[in-house]
Amino acid sequence: MEKMIEAVNVSYIYQTKYQKTKALSGVSCSFERGKVYAVTGKSGSGKSTFLSLLAGLDVPTEGTLNIEGEDMRKINRDTYRLNRASVIYQAFHLFPLLTVLENVMFPMQLQHVPAKQAKARAQEYLKKVDLPESLYKKMPGMISGGEQQRVAIARAIASGGEILLADEPTGNLDSQNEKVIVELLCKLAHEDNYAVIVVTHNEAVAAAADVVYGMSDGVLSVVRE
Amino acid sequence: MYHYILKSIQRQKGRSLLVILVNCILVILLNLYFGLIGSYQAQLRDLAANTSIKCIITNLDGSRDSLIAISSDTIRALQSSEQIRGLDCSVILEAGFGEFKMEEWDQHLNLLVRAVNNRDSAALPEGLKVQYMEGWDEALFTGNQHVCIMKESDMEKQGFAFGDDITLTIYYFYYDDKELLMDLRELDSAKFIIVGQIDDSDPMASQRYPNILLPFQTAWDLFEENQEDFTADEVSFYVGDPLALNAFKQEMREIGLMEIIKGSRLSFKGTALYVQDGIFITMADRLKTAIRILTAFLLPMGILVFIVGYVISHLLANGRVKEFALFRSLGVGALRAVRAFWYEQLILVLAGNVLGCLAALLLGKQGIQEIMTVCGASFGGYMLGTTVALLWLAKEKPLELLTSE
Fold first, then answer.
1. Mean pLDDT of A146-151
2. All domains of chain A, ordered by start, with CATH?
3. A chain contacts of residue B333, beta-carbon cutoff 8 Å
């Protein structure tokens, strides 16, 4: 299967005025469409740094990160996040000033999709994540954590990209909601052909993944393939 | 993004109102500040326009301002000066009707004559009726024709009428400055046409003014024709531009008019100038000091507006760092995200400025142009502060703010 993302000997060094910290060291791996990948590891192991590189929020200090064969350094990373990769966070990070529906419409508005079309598509995505219609006009603060995360997933798929990056997506959820979100991510990968990369230290999430990588002190290893 | 900006303004009412209110108050305060400067400047202009600083030529010790000898050179210099206005000159003469010999002066020399360059110099009482012959008016005093105005009672006594030619033998006062003596000397006999009469029906008032008024220049010409040194014995005028008092005083010194020196030797020479500028200087100094102090705060005021804009925008931006990071995470470029916040502030600041302008208009202290200028200054200063504060946001790394690690 075609490699969606390929990391070749990727290293990343955090550099402050006084010290340098190697967060990633010689990471090589690849990610394909239609699979769920889990990157596990302790806090501070470099998981989120790796995620930020995959999201194009930063570039590797050494090595290359290819997106469908293109070097991440050479592409417009804002456009990449706008159209191809979306990030889901542990704390949901919905816009508190926008309603559920407006939150999902937001990425499409950035892509200049006409309002009517954006609204229809947003409703479609919210249905896909099984969010009741009665919640569409509610503000994010008025719905539960599980519901908020489903809205965040709907917003992520609304951009139309095929890469879903999730940072501890179940970290703030109870076991019932955790199960729903994991199933949803698996469904998006297996049925809708998304490449889903989940950074987690939750074993249940890792167990549901097709491929599991372990991260320890910035070094990536294959746990299960 | 514009959709989001409008929603943000609409749904964060407290924050939006705060920015609007702060800007409204800034515009009002700045208008009051500039209004105060403008008001002081207007008061200074009005003071200069409405306050007349009178100047009187005196002798050096300031004890005499009439019946002194003011040289023709001084008068000529004053006539051509652009620093003065309202020059009043006069000279007192004695005269008798007809021609007579010097020895007969005590029988004939019974007329007080005053040569003046305008009606005000004649010191005639307000409202006194002066009747002119047809074709003549008080402009005659500015000329040099051999015409005169006479007291009505004298005309009746002598049986004169308008248009009559009369002969006057004129005597003048000679001032001996060395001996400090005043002497009466014969000048000339000359013919004059009567072109006006003074109503002297009130005998008390009539004592205060002369029997005959002549044009000042006519008298001066008579002196020159007889090769006598002409001197005026009363000269006063007003400072042309009270705001240019120093330049005026400099020119007066160049003309030869000194400051009064109390205790100097008594003299008949009109060589000093008494300037009635005390009140004007005190008031103008107070206003100028107030303007200077207020104007000195101009730069600090600008900096203050900048700081207010910076601090408020910085505090508001601090509370929106995650929002900014989320924008970035969703693919909005750093500058585009900053621009969105900047536009939001722009809308609120403009709204505050419009309200501030309306309030300033209602206060009615300033004109629209001044208000708009002040508003522009406030807007510029505040938005500069906002820009600096928001650019700081662009340095933020989004994932550090949003991820679990």
1. 86
2. 1-84+162-225 (3.40.50.300), 93-160 (no CATH)
3. 78
